[in-house]
Amino acid sequence: MKLTRRTALLLAAATALTPVAAFAQDSVKLGYQLPLTGNTAQYGQDFKDAAEIALTKFNASGALPVPVEIIYEDSRSDAKEGVTIARKFVDDKEIVGVLGDFTSTVSMAAAQVYKKAGMVQLSQTASHPDFAKISKWQFRNITTQDQEGAVNAQWMMDKGIKKVAVIAEQTDWGQSVAKGFVEPFEAAGGEVVYTEFFNRGLADFRSIITKLEDQAPDAVYTGFFYEDGAQFLKQMAQLDAEIPIYSTSAAYNDQLIELAGEAAEGLLLTATFLPTRMDANVQDFVTEWDKTHDHAPGQFPAQAYDAVNIMLAAVVKAYPDLTRESLRDAVAATSDFPGVTGNTTFDENGEPLKELTKASVVGGVFVEVE
Amino acid sequence: MSKSLLIKLGLLVLAFALIPALLVGFDKGYYYQIATIAAIFMLLAASLHLVTGVAGLLHLGHAALYGVGAYVAAILGANHGIGFTLGLPLAGLSAAAIAFLVALPTMRLMSIYFAVATLGIGQMLYLVFLNWVGLTNGPNGVMLFSGINLFGLEIDSDLGIYYVVAGIVAISILVLNRLSHSYYGNALRSLREDDQCASAMGINVTVMKIQAFVISAFFAGIAGALWAYTTGYISPNDFHFSQSILILTMVVVGGLGSLPGVLIGALLLILLPEALRSVGDIRNIIVGVLMFSAILFLPKGLFGEVSALNFARRVLGQGWAAKKGEKGIGWK
Amino acid sequence: MLDPYILQQLAIGLSLGMIYALMAIGFTLIFGVLNVVNFAHGEVYTIGAFAGLMAISAFGPPLLVVLFIALAAGALAGFGLERMAFRPFRRFSDEASLKSRAMREATLMSSLAMSIIAREAMEMVFGSQFQTVDLAYLINKPIHIGPITIVNGDLIILGVTLLMLGGLQWLLKKSPIGLSIRAVSNNALGAKYCGINTDRTIIITFVIGSAMGALAGILVGLYYGAIFPSMGFTPGIKAFVAMVMGGLSSVPGAVISAIILGLSESLSTSFMPSVWSDMVAYAFLLLTLIFFPQGLFGARRERV
Fold this sequence. Notes:
The complex is a heterotrimer of chains A (370), B (332) and C (304). Chain B has 14 helices and four strands. Chain B has 332 residues and is mainly α.
């Protein structure tokens, strides 16, 4: 990451001090709660960078007569802190909408506060099946596993794969990955021969892989983030398990290939965002991102970028009559929003509907599969 | 004696008039939230204090017992329609019951062995929270829709919730205080200093240790129920090993063996990270440095045991003071 | 019986056990002498891994040089740790203070504070993600032996563990330094009265133990290709468990317990969901504590 923590720190200090500045009265404020320190800080830092890109572009475009500000607060992926931040955002009468948090558990805990206070909360990653159902105030810009699992199930069926093992992390998200895939796959006549969950950050997958090989599936469907994914792929290669691996958009990250090297070759996955796509908005985002990063943006920062843009578009729609209530309605009315992760429409529950593309790792890069 | 009464009254006024007045004055949900979390962690620290500070048993799994209370309260509330009034004591009792089962085989273990046993049990309970999907809903956590309903009275204002939490915490801490500054507490202290000697003096060491452990777990369970009801959503991560360490740190920074010190330690470790929020990413390093300097420069804690004992004697000593024409009992 | 599946799981269990053993050795050495838990050992392990990683990305030396750089970094970290988190709490050397629980718990907390500072600092400098490691340095090249597959890292780790174990036994039993270490571990005050420089001995113990911890860090980091600031936490807990099962102060006991832990983890995956496999390790721990309160190998009252 070329954008050092120190500059980020200065930026944070600067934003913390700006409320006293002259334009404080006539700017629009949004809150963003995310993990900037702790075990999951790498994700939070990426979200922040993506949000900054979206915000800078927006403020330069002059779509609104007043600038928009985002206030970032660090939750450390700790529910205690997440709830406290939520209360803090709710207190600030100038904040009209909130983005975040990263993990579902923190987002869910904070959601109870937003529900009570009536503030729109748009998460870029919260994947808990019940998150968007908490109240009318919760939205998310993710690909739901019901969609992703169905596409993967169909993909395997098309290739004639009937026997599949499912490996997913032991989180709410991993549970929904397994469920989202197994149901359509079995409905289509496939057989799931082995299901296993693992604790996040597990160093050694070899026992699981050995057991998996013993079941001789035609393919493995996996639910992991890029770090666990890299470990899994490396150890699959190490044990010579030549079974095709399918995965979700969460694994879509250049660092997966960097960490796993050769072992990532041939990985198949679904995604909603491809930095190599030639669409103008995708290339805008990727160019800006590359100025401060060594890696192309992965799926998660792209989701954050879109979430911020969706929120900003809703602000424009609601302006000048901008209240928490009107912003919520504007977000809910989002339809066919052209983001880098495809077009987004919220259904009545605040769930996004997305189009998925298929990708594969060939020659050390992600390429779209036709 | 009037001085001790004054301190007691002062604390009560502080907790039930001054702080609420400030909270209402500021009218910020943020401050209510911090006050609530601080109160819950003060109770957690005070309950751990009974085991680690007074009885001298290093306990590395306190957060798991706190989790048991939270899960019992949340599951009863969400799935079985048992409200706050009944759920709160049940949460405490379940945590105490589990602690009792755990204590039976492990209590005869010495010092560090006991600490490791509590570590293992804490981790096992955490694995149960995380992986027993049928019971705890696994990583999905438990959502609790019902608010605090105290004897049929629905409490949903911020101030009301603060009063409920502060009231329960104050009563619990009072009980813990009486326990640790009594003959019973002194007997526990004797275990800490030299359990062979205590045993020779006729104290049943194992039974006393089990009692202290179970009582402490009861209050941890109460704290868990308060957390579940004030947040409305719990998940296994809230009760991870790192939370046990956080609570232990509160006890040690505040001063092993001193209840007022422990409470100050809890306040400090909750308030400090919040106060340092504007500093940015570096805030946790600052917390670490402050923790280190507190241990280095105040080896007995912020409020050492001796001064704490004197304080408690002054405050609570009148019960043992000599009455007119009678022989005094107690420490003197 | 000799099902290749079981054989493969056994091989994996052994290599896991070796990895835990690698960390447990340094941990046990420091514990055995000082009778305090060093919470910062996990961070020393991480520092070793990061030192090696920085050397690799800076000038790409041969593996052996990387290992020595990690050793040196660990020794330095151990020295600093002793100076900052342990030395200040030995300023009172009378018997009461030495026995005082408060003093012992002070070092527990000061080492915890050090570990928080070190980990947060590493997170700030490097970020909390997995660091990119030059894949050529990874020690995970497969080796096929009949039906089972191991990697070259298994052999390296086995070799290093044996070397460390043998070297340590020689050091403790045959050398004058080892004699003073054992003396201090047995009775610090008595050793002092006999003219042993206890401060120096404790520093040496820390330096040796931490260097071993750092070496473990870089080896495991390269074995898995996973180097990140909180990497020391899980192996730290496992090493702690192994140390207790082995009887707290017996290094060979800790190594054998670590192997038992590794085996039980890999084999348990065959019978139950892998998320529960840690449960087996903790169950082992509790059973050991309840039925062998002195640890499996502590009965001989071996101090180190």
